[in-house]
Amino acid sequence: MRTRSSTRPRPISPRNDADKAVLQRLAVRADVTDYVRIISRAHAATPLGMGFGKTRFSSPRDKFRLLYLAQDPATAIAETIVRDRFQGKAERLILREEFDRYSIAVIRNPNPLFLLDLRNEGANLLGVSTDAVRARAQTSGRRLSQEIYDRTDFDGILYMSRITNKQCVAVYDRATASIEADSPAWDLIRLSALGRILDALHLTVIDRGMMSNR
Asked: What range(s) does the RES domain occupy (predicted)?
């Protein structure tokens, strides 16, 4: 990803001059070309489709939709499929059939996105809990995202995956015209690097019969 501080003014409505200065400091232009998104295979024909849900930066009141992009396929798999399922478990086993349920889309970004950069000290500078970006609990992140959506003109939020520590982007529905993806999305199981990614994530893929014998 190529990022640069934003010099082009955009409409923002902070509560005071201090808020305005912080938001301007955290504003970046980002080209997310080659970022990826993992979606249900059932939605492969609409790789940029969105819906309401309960995710890290989703609207707590279902006032907007968003989609998530990851810097690389490993991060997308970790954030979408793996998540916290193996906490407290000695073995990291995953059924082969799970990967048949997903597709992967590669993003093009002809018009760079205008993002709020929360990769580093951003949450602290905004006076919100760092839980908004890093914690398993997502209530703080949803409240922050709603406020950013309502009070600013940001296209989305740039942040770090708490699992892989790689970059991710939450893109608001008002900005999806700035990104593109081929349709249909590719079947995830066909990804040539999948084996290496699973090794890097310390995952062991097994068939259902092996799972029932354990």
From this structure: 46-182
Q: Which residues of 176-188 are buried (b: 16+ CB within 10 A; e: fewer)?
A: bebbbbeeebbeb
Regarding pTM above 0.85, the answer is yes
> 132 and 140 in contact (C-beta within 8 Å)?
yes
Query: What is the DSSP pairing of strand 93-95 with strand 167-172?
Result: unpaired
Rounded CA-CA distance 59/94 in Å is 31
Read off φ and ψ for residue 127, nearest 5 degrees.
Answer: 75, 25
Tens-place pLDDT, residues 6-65: 544 344 445 555 688 899 999 999 999 999 999 999 999 999 999 999 999 999 999 999
What are the structural domains, with CATH classification, of the chain?
A: 2-82+103-187 (3.90.175)
The whole-angstrom separation of Cα 96 and Cα 175 is: 35
- Cis peptide bond upstream of 184, omega within 30: yes
